[in-house]
């Protein structure tokens, strides 16, 4: 039997490597929050589950309206997607013709090169600075007439570092007006430095800027898959054209709405994680580890050639971290108890 021919270029596609789940070990590998759903959110999911014989609201209109009022934009400037990773793919599909370039820092969120190549566009990676931050000047210099899209992950996954208002404003002022800059703010709710700009402000006022957020992290709905983007009307219209019909399911829509109702409580949980983040980073610095300043719910240990060894050592101590081969290890902030187990492992690694 002859094989069905599939796209030859898919063989060269980098694989998305999800954080591992190891029975009996603490998972600090996927930047999830440690707490399960609030009772009100669980109730909303149960209520919605009674009608899953019906298709969900295709446009997720209640959620779109709620987000529009939350961010003070018209509904024509809001799109939802099956996780913000789906919206990353939609941006490429909506904006890029074959061979167009999509620019992003590297290392950054590993889905960027994948969705770019799936969309037949060309990924252009601009190295982070030696201090693990975006090199916005180099990114600006890398823009060509073929560039259609730039992802700026702020705070950056996996380094946790964040660009500040002055440098981002300067960058956005200089980017050509026909290039869309997507500010990927998956970790926005964990940002504590007021000088890290709110991407929604830019998305509201600049037609070539989009802000991308998710219910997966601070809102604790990673398993339900819902993200959203705020952008100018033509961009949102194009995102909706490439939306896979019904891909934000009914449970996700209801849970997202209930989470917005419980925003204060959920953000208070984030504040606890931020407190733990400071404690974990300070402890690691005290042990002599290099740990860049982080504005997200994880820390980055640029361990380079010791990355795999450290990850194995952590697993021996029942902690699953996220190794990036030859570069470093990303560790999600968990509960205080989980973080203590990790810190003990980190201490033992040096012994
Ligand atoms: N953007 C960034 C920077 C991320 O780290 C992630 C998840 N790891 C996503 C987007 C996608 O998240 P989700 O699809 O769960 O919304």
Automatic annotation (TrEMBL):
Keywords: Aminotransferase, Pyridoxal phosphate, Transferase. Signal peptide: none annotated. Its cofactor is pyridoxal 5'-phosphate. One of its GO terms (molecular function) is pyridoxal phosphate binding. Its EC number is 2.6.1.57. Residues 26-345 form the Aminotransferase class I/classII large domain. Gene3D superfamilies: Aspartate Aminotransferase, domain 1, Type I PLP-dependent aspartate aminotransferase-like (Major domain). Pfam families: Aminotran_1_2. CDD domains: AAT_like. One of its GO terms (biological process) is L-histidine biosynthetic process. The modification N6-(pyridoxal phosphate)lysine is found at residue 217. It comes from the Bacteria. The keyword Transferase applies. It catalyses: an aromatic L-alpha-amino acid + 2-oxoglutarate = an aromatic oxo-acid + L-glutamate. Homodimer. PANTHER family: HISTIDINOL-PHOSPHATE AMINOTRANSFERASE, HISTIDINOL-PHOSPHATE AMINOTRANSFERASE 2. Belongs to the class-II pyridoxal-phosphate-dependent aminotransferase family. Aminotransferase that catalyzes the conversion of aromatic amino acids and 2-oxoglutarate into corresponding aromatic oxo acids and L-glutamate. This is Aromatic amino acid aminotransferase. It comes from Saccharomonospora xinjiangensis XJ-54.
